[in-house]
Design a protein that fits this description.
heterodimer, A: 465 residues, alpha/beta, Aspartate Aminotransferase, domain 1, Aspartate Aminotransferase, domain 2, 3 domains, seven-stranded mixed sheet, four-stranded antiparallel sheet, 14 helices, B: 522 residues, 4 domains, two-stranded antiparallel sheet, 15 helices
């Protein structure tokens, strides 16, 4: 192996030769090889790793990474109508300020005496989510909304002792893929069809599929395709009648205007917190939540950490700690509930900051404004000849489906035309939902002005001409 | 003026104590933290207010009872809570063994904050995201080289998710050979991370856990007795949580392969072996890294993290979709992988952490990574020497031998002689502005303490940590009461733990607390 250059690395204090020599002397070792005595020769890599030459200074590193990232075009530069599970919303500056603080950013798993701050911040996150959801138990975030749905269904199966679940056919393909892999091999999955006209779940079909094996009926509100499931109470009633639990996936940002699922019969509520003050990060900004009522049968099935409040030895002091820790894989390995590990705690703190900034009035206003913009965009686009807004008579939250089949163009061609006009169009649904034809799923946000929505409509008019 | 006396060792720390209320108590009616862009009159005129027109079944009657606060009060509250938290930026964070607490370079955080990444939507046209796709493609290439594996997916959200992805790929591999029904057992070791067994259990396998032999190494005879035609996989950490490298790891792999099982290497703690030894040379079929451990991305109070699963050609068809590919001209996402296990999380992975880890490797290169490993191991063996000089401390197994990147110590002697337990020491450590961790459960090593001094710490740092442990040991022998009544210098005092396990008292949320203590909302 060629000799290494002696370099002092700023991230490695003991790379400085005098320090290293002093350390070796102190432990009585001639060189570091002695520490690796247990690693047999046959396992040693007898060459230098073949990696790019290092960029040792910050200046070189920044130049290199900027050079790469500057090839991206972001939604700050381009009008975007993409959603489908990742959403562009305004992130309040205070959210970024708090989650950038080194005390939170670089902490990990300390106990409540070193890390009182993170325990309290996450307890407050749970508590504010609980107000949104009108439920008493919310977990410290798990990975993402996909995981939250998959775990909620496993919880339901454990609680009921049953082995099948029903999911809506209007669910996104990626989430369905994750849930299927996660429930395999002990839980069977069935799909509830949706009505072609309304996009809502087909209640008659649901009732025929419900039997004594069904642990849970899962549906989403708003649905993946944007519709608000107005018959949610009837779905949960049907589930209850069959002895199944009702599990509902929600966008928490909708809960300023949409009823919390527990009020229409949900037993477990889950979803993703990316919409609560977390940047899109190219799909890297997700965190999952699961909520239930304060019933030990449910609480004891959560795999996640649950931070709770308790008195300390001093009056007027709040202490925090793990509720019912003895159910977790940290305590019981494979005998615990699924597993718990590093997931998305910082996003939980961030979502708490977001909810505190928004308050009741902010959550109401954002929900109303999103629904107004969404309906406005739907109506504007519906007036374009050849375009059909699918499920138009159903209330929508932020997303809606437009079918371009009548134009003779593919959904992909429409998106290409929009991109040429500097617009990121909708998600192409033609592969995911062939029954919807050449459709795109568009998403609006509070960052869109009336002029932005007008620009989209005008561009669509040009593209389909 | 006389000279001011030198600083005592260990330092006289006191944690911030803001006595901060719970956020709901800070609510003031009518306050706003942020305002929203107004909905233009043109929109309002055309559509009215559809939210108010929702049917009663789904319309929220009252806004949620969130706190009402001005912006500065939200900021101040959380800034204070942050001060009551001990990040790795602030402390000599060697006490969180197995977690590889190292310096997360600030420049990498800066790079990850660019709108060119934060404001990217994952479904944008590939032509508009060539930069981040290239980062992911290059990152996969570097991790392939570091592990020796043929392909690496960056999709898993963290280490345990990566373990689970590996188990799913192994399950799919056996299924493709019609063997999945029969191969329903996974073998792991008690000093491997608990998620190995836990994830395998979720995937539907039975879990067999091997205990160490007298020298602390995974028991080869126990493995031989455990393997059969039902073995799906061996999931094993190496070096294990004890910091001991299993020198017979090739033989473990050979035995499992001979029985038709596959082997997955838990390399969450690869910090001490970067550039020294790899999964490939040991014969593994799969491995995983935690980018938030070895590759420096900040731990975020427990995530967002990032996992990376590496596999050989035989398992590559089963990788999650999409993979990131390069056709010589452009980078693209490949969904056309019919044998894939599908999605392990939304989209493609935790992009900001993938970028940070990429930047970290790029700032060190091959020599730098090896320097990381060697200095981490040097630091660990230095701290081992210092700890063994402390009364009541020991390092079970492999007496007199060196360790790799961490050590699972035991205070068994101290407990026997003083009645002070490791968990009490843990609490006392907070009084010195440090972290300390016992071990995963069960406590196979009695009265455990697991320390992992990565490359980020200097000799003076390690001396300070050891001096703190020595002082606590001295206290145990002379004044154990000070330990048993700790913490003294923390944000809060000793918490009553009984409510956390009592369903009538536990309170996971403020509303549950108010209800169970008979209080009305203020």
């Amino acid at each position: 192996m060629p000799a290494r250059k002696t370099l002092v690395y700023p991230y490695i204090p003991n790379s400085a030769p005098p320090a290293k020599e002093a350390m070796l002397r102190a432990v009585g070792a001639r060189n570091v090889d002695e520490f690796y005595a247990d690693i047999p020769d046959s396992l040693r890599l007898k060459r230098r790793l073949n990696l790019p030459e290092p960029l040792l200074s910050e200046a070189e590193l920044i130049r290199h990474v900027d050079g790469l990232l500057n090839r991206n075009r972001s939604t700050r530069e381009t009008l975007s109508f993409l959603g489908a599970g990742c959403y562009q919303h305004q992130v309040p500056a205070v959210c970024d300020e708090i989650n950038s603080r080194g005390e939170f950013l670089t902490a990990y798993a300390g106990d409540p005496y070193e890390d009182h701050g993170r325990f309290q911040a996450l307890f407050e996150y749970e508590s504010m989510m609980a107000e949104l959801l009108n439920m008493d138990v919310v977990n410290v975030p798990n990975y993402d909304g996909f995981q939250a749905a998959a775990t909620s269904l496993r919880m339901a199966a454990r609680i009921t002792g049953r082995t099948s679940v029903l999911l809506p056919a209007n669910i996104g393909a990626d989430k369905l893929s994750k849930v299927r892999e996660y429930l395999k091999p002990d839980i069977k999955m069935g799909l509830i069809p949706f009505e072609a006209k309304s996009g809502l779940l087909d209640l008659t079909a649901l009732k025929t599929r419900l039997d004594q094996q069904i642990a849970a009926v899962y549906f989403e509100n708003p649905a993946y395709l944007g519709m608000i499931e107005t018959r949610a109470d009837q779905i949960s009633a049907a589930a209850r009648l069959a002895g199944a639990l009702c599990v509902v996936g929600v966008d928490p940002l909708s809960l300023g205007v949409i009823r919390p699922p527990v009020e229409y019969g949900a037993d477990i509520v889950c979803g993703d917190i990316q919409t609560l003050g977390i940047h899109m990060h190219y799909g890297g900004g997700h965190g999952g939540f699961i909520a239930s009522n304060d019933d030990p049968r449910f609480v004891m099935e959560f795999p996640s950490r649950l931070f709770g409040v308790a008195p300390t030895s001093v009056e007027g002091e709040y202490g925090f700690g793990d509720v019912a820790y003895e159910r977790t894989s940290f305590a019981l390995r494979e005998e615990g509930k699924e597993w718990v590990g590093t997931a998305a705690a910082l996003w939980g703190i961030t979502a708490g900051v977001y909810l505190a900034l928004m308050g009741p009035q902010g959550m109401l206003e954002i929900g109303e404004g999103l629904m107004q913009r969404c309906r406005f965009a739907m109506q504007k686009i519906a007036r374009i000849p050849g375009l059909k807004v699918t499920f138009a008579d159903t209330p929508h939250f932020t997303e809606f489906v437009v079918d371009f089949s009548g134009t003779g163009q593919t959904a992909a061609a429409i998106n290409k035309g929009l991109l040429e006009r500097d617009i990121f169009g909708g998600k192409d649904l033609s592969g995911e939902f062939p029954s919807l034809g050449q459709s795109l799923l568009f998403c609006v946000s509070e960052v869109h002005t009336q002029a932005d929505l007008g620009r989209l409509a005008a561009a669509l008019k040009e593209v389909v001409k | 003026m006389k000279p001011i006396a030198p600083k005592p060792m260990p330092r006289r720390f006191h944690q911030a104590r803001w006595d901060e209320p719970v956020i709901f108590e800070l609510s003031q009616p009518g306050q706003r933290g942020v305002l929203l862009p107004p909905v233009e009159a043109g929109i309002e005129e055309e559509v009215g207010n559809p939210a108010r027109a929702l049917p009663d079944s789904v319309r929220r009657p009252e806004p949620p009872a969130l706190p009402e606060m001005s912006q500065v009060h939200v900021l101040r509250h959380y800034a204070r809570l942050s001060q009551e938290n001990l990040g790795a930026d602030l402390n000599i964070d060697v006490g969180q063994g197995t977690c590889t607490m190292k310096y997360s370079p600030k420049v990498n955080d800066q790079l990850a904050r660019t709108p060119k990444l934060t404001e990217l939507h994952p479904l944008q046209d590939e032509s508009t995201v060539q930069g981040i796709l290239e980062v992911m493609y290059r990152m996969e290439g570097m991790l392939k080289e570091i592990s020796g594996m043929d392909r690496v997916t960056l999709q898993p959200g963290a280490g345990s998710a990566a373990i689970y992805a590996n188990v799913c790929m192994i399950r799919a591999y056996h299924a493709s050979r019609g063997q999945d029904k029969r191969r329903d057992e996974v073998i792991t070791t008690i000093f491997s991370h608990p998620s190995n067994g836990a994830a395998a259990k979720v995937a539907g396998t039975k879990v067999i856990t091997l205990y160490p032999d007298a020298d602390g190494y995974p028991d080869l005879e126990a493995l031989k007795a455990a393997v059969s035609d039902r073995t799906a996989a061996l999931l094993i950490t190496n070096p294990e949580d004890t910091g001991i490298f299993n020198p017979r790891i090739e033989e473990f792999v050979r035995i499992v392969h001979a029985a038709g099982g596959l082997c997955s290497y838990d390399q969450a703690n690869a910090n001490g072996i970067l550039g020294i030894t790899r999964a490939r040379e040991a014969g593994f079929d799969a491995c995983h890294f935690n980018l938030h451990k070895t590759f420096s991305t900040p731990h975020g109070c427990g995530g967002p993290a990032s996992g990376a699963s590496g596999v050989t050609e035989a398992l590559a068809p089963f990788l999650p979709v999409p993979t990131v590919e390069f056709d010589g001209r452009k980078y693209y996402l490949d969904y056309d992988r019919p044998q894939s296990i599908g999605k392990t999380r939304p989209f493609y992975g935790v992009a900001p952490n993938i970028l940070r880890a990429y930047a970290w490797i790029m700032s060190l290169g091959a020599d730098g990574l090896r320097e990381v490993a060697e200095v981490a191991v040097l630091n660990n063996n230095y701290l081992l020497k210092k700890v063994l000089e402390i009364r009541g401390a020991g390092a079970p197994y492999a007496k007199g031998k060196r360790r790799i990147e961490q050590v699972r110590y035991s205070w068994e002697q101290l407990t026997r002689e003083t009645g002070v337990h490791s968990e009490e020491i843990e609490t006392r450590v907070a009084d010195f502005g440090m972290h300390y961790w016992t071990s995963h459960h069960p406590y196979v090593v009695p009265e455990p303490m697991t320390l992992e001094p990565t490359e980020s710490y200097s000799k003076a740092d390690l001396d300070e940590y050891a001096a703190m442990l020595k002082q606590i040991s001295d206290e145990a022998y002379t004044n154990p009461q000070i330990i048993k009544t700790a913490p003294h210098n923390s944000t809060v005092h000793r918490t009553r733990h009984e409510p956390f396990d009592n369903p009538d008292e536990w309170a996971v949320t403020w509303r549950a607390y108010l209800r169970k203590t008979g209080q009305k909302r203020g």
